[in-house]
Amino acid sequence: MNLIILKLILAHILGDFFLQPQKWVKDKEKKKLKSKWLYIHIAIHIALMFLLVWDFSYWLLILLIGTSHFIIDALKLLLQKKKTKRFYFFADQILHIAAIFLLAIAMYYEDIAPSLSISTSALLLIICLVFLTTPTSIIMRTIFTKWDISKYTEDNESLKDAGKYIGILERLLVFIFIIVGHWEAVGFLITAKSVFRFGDLTSTKERKLTEYILIGTLISFGIAIIVSLLFLNLKSYV
Q: Could you tell me the superkingdom of the organism this chain comes from (predicted)?
């Protein structure tokens, strides 16, 4: 996997998940192509790609990726309905990554070369770590739009965004444990979380909330394990 492609993927993750506030997303869904945030979002993506690649000779590739990003986002906004938001969210992300690969390979099949001293394996590690934070949280939130558990949690006292940060920390720990070869620590982490979380749930006797948290925990750990295994298998090729 080439360094340029990895930099473009990192730019996509930063632009789509870290530099796009929720209010921008809501405004785009409401106003669609008339939303100014759609065009600001695309401009940020293009700026990030130029900044990370840091080689103006790739200007045409970057502009084409930016154009493809606009087209994909525009189609998503025009086609998605409330019931199909989850489908279009994942389709949107898959198409963005595919566009980066296809355009980069089509234009620079032979001579895509690294433009900075950072190694490809180090950049792959950064991408995996970044993906396991906010992007995975957003993916999980999108998956769970299928269920509404607000009535089961409205009386529960909890720190603001505590669940989000717990999920991020557990995924990063799972990733670190696996890449350094300590799978037993993953089992310990699962056990420790079960003791704390499910002990509280049994006192409330809320079966649906218990199932919700169990599914979330398994998905969170599952994504972290998959990303870890992908990193271990891909790092020898980059």
A: Bacteria
Reduced to 3 states (helix: H, G, I; strand: E, B; else coil), residue 172 is helix
State the Cα–Cα distance between residues 171 and 128, nearest whole angstrom.
11
Q: State how far the Cα of 165 lies from the Cα of 46, in Å rounded to an integer.
A: 29
What are the C-alpha distances in Å from 201 to residues 141, 151, 154? 21, 15, 14
Instruction: Please give the structure tokens belonging to residue 25.
Output: 């997303």
* Separation CA 18–CA 130 (nearest Å): 10
Residue 152 in contact with residue 209, Cβ under 8 Å? yes
Query: Domain for residue 139, yes or no?
Result: no
Residues 110 and 156 in one domain: no
Q: How confident is the model at residue 164 (pLDDT cuts 50, 70, 90)?
A: confident
Identify whether residues 103 and 184 lie together within a single domain. Answer: no
Spatial neighbors of 178 by CB under 8 A, at least 6 apart, are 186, 224, 225, 228, 229, 232
Name the one residue in this structure whose structure tokens are 């870290």. Answer: 18
Q: Are residues 111 and 29 in the same domain?
A: yes
pLDDT in tens, 33-67: 999 999 999 999 999 999 999 999 999 999 999 99
The count of domains in the chain is 2
Q: How many CB atoms lie within 10 A of CB 198?
A: 13
